[in-house]
Amino acid sequence: xxxxxxxxxxxxxxxxxxxxxxxxxxxxxxxxxxxxxxxxxxxxxxxxxxxxxxxxxxxxxxxxxxxxxxxxxxxxxxxxxxxxxxxxxxxxxxxxxxxxxxxxxxxxxxxxxxxxxxxxxxxxxxxxxxxxxxxxxxxxxxxxxxxxxxxxxxxxxxxxxxxxxxxxxxxxxxxxxxxxxxxxxxxxxxxxxxxxxxxxxxxxxxxxxxxxxxxxxxxxxxxxxxxxxxxxxxxxxxxxx
Length: 241
Description:
Elements: H1 2-9, H2 13-34, H3 42-53, H4 59-75, H5 79-90, H6 97-115, H7 118-130, H8 133-149, H9 155-165, H10 167-177, E1 189-196, E2 201-210, E3 215-224, E4 229-238
Antiparallel strand pairs: 1-2, 2-3, 3-4
Helix pairs in contact: 2-3, 2-4, 2-5, 5-7, 6-7, 6-8, 7-10, 8-10, 9-10
């Protein structure tokens, strides 16, 4: 591993990061095949931190890295390997690299939503389910900023697409977003999550107000946890009429 590190040090930032991703894929594929409890060793995690999270890249190199990561997850056919790679990259370790992890995670998931990379969204759903609510809210905030602030009006069609392409991520994302807004304050975006424990259903309701157009869009996604079924309903109201 020491020889590998020396080899990586001689490469440019993007090439080194790509090589670490390739190493992760090969290493974890072997772990899944040969070990009853596959895991990532400390040395590999150190390579991830040094050559993917800590090395400075230009904006273009960072975009290229995100594209490489999208391809890596898309081309890996085994979900167990994808989940382990995602965990190696983004499981929070309680160290200084966590800020870089969160920044890269937000950009990767945002890109995955934009280009429809379902394998990444499935891994992100697992990450949201297992991570502390504070970090789930941070990821949700990044996505809300990208799809509500930077691209006004894009959240509703985005949620509709996600509810069909990756229901687990859609559910986890909406659950995380519910903690961002206080309905009593009259904020621009109001989100409510309702749990009916008597029936085992989970209803997530998102209401978005577009003040620039006067439209009121309500998106409701229903998950029946007892049967695994999912119903997505979109209702549009034009307040001007």
